[in-house]
Write a structure and sequence with these properties.
Number of domains: 2
Bound molecules: flavin mononucleotide
Oligomer: single chain
Number of strands: 9
Number of helices: 14
Shape: globular
Largest sheet: 5 strands, mixed
Length: 373
Amino acid sequence: MKKKLLIALITITVVTVTALTSLFILGRKTNVNTNKNIQGLNEELSEIMYLGSLAPSSHNIQCWQIELYPEEGKLTVSADPERKLDVVDPHAREQFLSLGCYIRTLEEAFLAYGYNVTYSYDESSDTMNFNYKKISDKTDSNTIARIKKRHTDKRSFDINDSSKNEYVSKLCKVTGSEYYSFDTKEFAIIKKATSDAYIKQAYDSETAKELSEWLRLSDKETKDKKDGLSAEQLGITGIKKVFYYLFTNHETAKGKTFADQGIANTENQLSGCMGFIIVSSGDSKKELVECGIKTTDIWLDLTENNISVHPMSYAIEESEYKATLKAQLAGSDTNNEDVSKQEPQMLLRVGCVKNYGENNAIRRDLQDYIKVH
Ligand SMILES: Cc1cc2nc3c(=O)[nH]c(=O)nc-3n(C[C@H](O)[C@H](O)[C@H](O)COP(=O)(O)O)c2cc1C
């Protein structure tokens, strides 16, 4: 009898340990091996181009394409027409904001490796012409670390920690962007518009279908595609990731249960937040690229100061909510022609967290989008 009990106990222990180990292994962070090798580029330039690709882009579409001329120290950056979110981004607004994010991150990577950089936007071809020249052999490891650390944080932030409120407020004044902290009436307006717009999108079949196409629903799919939104990109880690991958596929991701879960997550995110930053600009492609550059400047500064960032574009993507935001936030400035031409382009949820984390680095192989001449 005692022997049977012992065998049963050992069996239960072995099964439990095996199950927990499997869950642990399956729940680990996916490591994507981006191939940085590209013919015609030396190791340093390859590394710089890789660091540039750690830039944010909506749905992680990585919509940039590059023509590189190493002999002449120049490259051009333009938008890949195949990598665009036709439903939520019909006018390529976010595509060009993302290009701006890429250009600013790439600039930072060149500077870190001792290069001088200049760039100018050609409106006739919607291309950024970018020149670089090595001026120093010193490498700035802090700048490299900052690029690798910057990421989108979709967790709920610490609502008891508003110690960086003043800092963000000052940074926004200096950079010409707006900051609305949790204790302002504008914060409530942004929160409601974002929540309402998210709910509208979550139940819209076309929006859900587009999102589903960019979701990566297994480690294999993430490693194969090297773009889009994996569990980690959505802030789902550990055991939750195992169950998320087990019970979600590209069909169920278009359904009501998935939409309801997304709405609940968004409510949590909006409640766990120190404030919102709005970065505005005109609507031309050049202005959007400049706005992406400015946003990345702000984001990298916040990263250095351990302030988490989460872009929430839903209210800006939906014209009725964008109009509400513009009307209700402009206040007395509506008569000012300069201000009324400025559209809200990036809405960033910001706050503090205990462990800052780092970029998941789900990025495409360089040869997929860089042509060396
Ligand atoms: C123009 C733009 C719009 C974005 N909009 C959203 C958004 O509405 N919701 C969201 O969760 N993330 C948004 N993001 C963040 C991207 O999903 C994120 O940058 C991308 O997945 C890459 O991840 P990383 O920022 O951690 O490198 C946006 C990013 C950019 C550049």
